[in-house]
Amino acid sequence: MTKRPTIHDVARQAGVSKSLVANVFRSAEGVSEKRREAVLAAAEELGYTPNAWARALRSPSSGFVGIVVADFHNPLFTAIAEETRQILAARDIFCFVATASIVDGPNGKVVDRAPIAHLLDLKPSSLFIVGSLPELSAFASLPKDMPIVVASSSSAELPNAVAVRTDEVAAMTLICSHLRDLGHKTVAYIGPEKRPVAADRQSAFLARAKRSRIKSTCITTGIAVDESAGLGAAEAALALVPRPTAIVCFNDNMAFGAQSAVARAAAGGAPEVAITGYDNTYIAQLDRISLTSIDQDVTEIAKQATAILTDPKMFSKFSGKEILVEPQLAIRASTRAPLSAG
Amino acid sequence: MTKRPTIHDVARQAGVSKSLVANVFRSAEGVSEKRREAVLAAAEELGYTPNAWARALRSPSSGFVGIVVADFHNPLFTAIAEETRQILAARDIFCFVATASIVDGPNGKVVDRAPIAHLLDLKPSSLFIVGSLPELSAFASLPKDMPIVVASSSSAELPNAVAVRTDEVAAMTLICSHLRDLGHKTVAYIGPEKRPVAADRQSAFLARAKRSRIKSTCITTGIAVDESAGLGAAEAALALVPRPTAIVCFNDNMAFGAQSAVARAAAGGAPEVAITGYDNTYIAQLDRISLTSIDQDVTEIAKQATAILTDPKMFSKFSGKEILVEPQLAIRASTRAPLSAG
DNA sequence: TTGTATGCGTTATCAA
DNA sequence: TTGATAACGCATACAA
C-alpha cells in the first residue's frame, strides 16, 4: 500500500551511506562483513529490493534478457518463450517479455515500434526474438555487440543475429521417408506463399520428395495458415490429377483443415488420404485428431538460445550463422491407415 | 547501431534548452509556436522519442497499463491479454506484459515475485491480472488508488480490485437447459477441486441442474485440468450407477479427454454420452472434435477491463465488485446426438 | 573501508 | 516565454 523502500531508506535504517548499500547490492569487493550484514538486515526488514530500471538508467546494460514474441496466439512461440524464461530464471537471469504488435502501415504490414522501443529503453543485455516479423526496422539502433537470437525464423534483416531453428530439410526427410515407406508415390504439399519460413519449408519438401522418388505438387494459400486455409488448399489438392494419396501440410492448423476436407470427400466415397502436420501441438495428440506431425524440439531450441543469449563468446562465434535443431516425427493415425490399392 | 538520442541532443540541435524540449513533449502550455516547431523538427531529424522509464523515475506514474498473465499456455488468457492490448493500443495507451511464474515454495505453490516486482518498478498507472494466481502477496505494496482489474478469476485477496468474469450461473443455465431440452436426466460434472474458479463453476452447475430437475453427481480431479485429467474423471463418471447420459466438463481440455473416454467405451458397445466443454477454444470447432462449449466473450471482457483500467472514476465505482459478462453456448455435435432410449 | 559528488534522461519548480 | 537547477533511485570515480 505504501511507497517502495529505496537505497536511501536502507542506508538510514542501517546507519550507513547510500553508496555502501549500493556496493553491497552490487556485490562489490571491499565491504566489511559487519556492515554488509547490517545492510542486509535493514534491507530485509524494510523489504527492499533494488529498482532494476533506475539501475538500467545508470549502467550501460541492466543484465536482463528481452524477449519479443511475434504472435501471442501461436502456441509454439509462447512455448519457446516460456521455456527459455524458465531456463534463464533457474540461473537467476531475469527476462522481460514484450509482444510485437503488427499494424497496417502505408506500405503493408509494419511492426509497431512503441512496444519494442520501450523494451530497448530498458537496456537489455541481450535480445531474443521469437517468431517471424514482417520487418525489423524497430531493431535498427542496437549496440553492435548485443547478442541477438532469432527463433523459428531467419535472421536475414539482422545481419549479425544468430538464428536458432528447426532443420527443415531434416524434417522433410523424416516425412518423405515415412510416406515412401508406406507406399505413397503422389503427394501434395499445402502451405502459404509469403511467409519467412514458408519458402524454406516448401523447397525442403520438394527436394526431399524428389530424393524419395515421390511425385509432388504444391498448392499455396497466400498468407493464411489456419484451418480454413488448410481446408481450401486440401480441396484443391484432392482435385489434382493424378489424385495425391497424401497431403503434407505447412503446420498443424492447416492439417486440421485438410483432415476435414479428406473426411468430407471420404463421406462421398473417395479414398482416404494421409495427412502430416508440423509443430506437433498438443491438439495433434488428441484421440480424435491423431495427426502425424513434426515435433520441433522446443526444449533444445530454448537451450541453444539461452547459451547464446548469456555468453558473448558463444554469440560472437555464431554471429550471422544459423543453429539447426533436429526435429522428430510423431507418427499417429493420420498416416497409419493402410494405403488403398490403386 | 548507435546510442538513442536524448532530450539533450534535441535541445542542442534546435538551439534551445532541455527544459523547453521537455515542455514540448509534455505538451505543456506556454511554448511559442516557433520554438515548438523547431523542437519537433529537430526531434524528427534525430529520431528522438522520450525514454519512458527515465520519465517514470521522476513521475509518480508512467501512464502505461501493466498486464500480468497467469499462464502463457492458456489460450484464453493470452487471448484476453492480446485483445486488451489491442484496444488500448488503438487509444495510444501502451501495455507491458509480464508472465507470472509459479514456483514451488516451502508451503506449496508460490508466485515468483521478481517478474511482478520488476513490472511494478516501472510504475504502471493500472494493473490487469489475467487468470488466477495461487497467491497474490507479490502485489501487496501498491498505491491504494491504482486501478486493478482481475479477469477470469475472483479478487478475494485484492479487496479493492474489480473482477471481470464470465457469469458462471448464466453459463450453467445455458448448459443445463440445453441438456434438459435434449432429454437428459442424469448428468455428471467433472472438474478440479482446488482452483479459484472451480468452486464457483461447480456450485453453479449443481444449482442449475437442480433447477432443471437433472440428477447430478460431481467427480473432482484435484488440481489438474488437462485432457488426461478429463479422461480419468470421465471414466469414473461412466462407471456411476445410474450411468449419466451427459458429462459437463470444467473446460475444453478436460472435455477432449472425456470424448476419448466415451469413444473407448462406445467401442466396447456402451451407449454414446453427450459432452460439454467450457471456453470454446478454436479446437472445439474442429470438425473431428465438434464440442458444444461455453463461449466466454473475450472481446466484452477486454472492453470492460479497459474501461476500468483507463478511467479512475469507473474504478472507484466498481472497486471491490464484480462485473459479470454474459456467455453464449456454442452448440455442436457433441450434444447433438439423439439421446438413446433407456 | 567508507563517504561525497556527479551523472543517467526525465520532470517540475523557480527565477530571469 | 524561457532557462537554470534540483530531484527520481541508483552506480561509480574519487576523496577521506
Written overview of the protein:
The structure is a homodimer of 342-residue chains. The first copy, chain A, is α/β, with parallel strands linked by helices and 342 residues long. Chain A has three domains: 44 residues, Orthogonal Bundle (434 Repressor (Amino-terminal Domain)); 130 residues, 3-Layer(aba) Sandwich (Rossmann fold), CATH 3.40.50; 129 residues, 3-Layer(aba) Sandwich (Rossmann fold). Chain A is 42% helix and 19% strand. Chain A is built from 13 helices and 14 strands. In chain A, the strands form three sheets. Chain A has a six-stranded parallel sheet, sandwiched between helices. A six-stranded mixed sheet of chain A has the order 9-8-10-11-12-14, with helices on both faces. In chain A, strand 3 and strand 4 form a beta hairpin. The first copy, chain A, starts with 6 loop residues before the first helix and ends in a 12-residue tail after the last strand. At the A-B interface, helix 4, helix 5, strand 2, helix 6 and helix 10 of A face helix 4, helix 5, strand 2, helix 6 and helix 10 of B. The structure holds a DNA duplex (16 and 16 nucleotides).
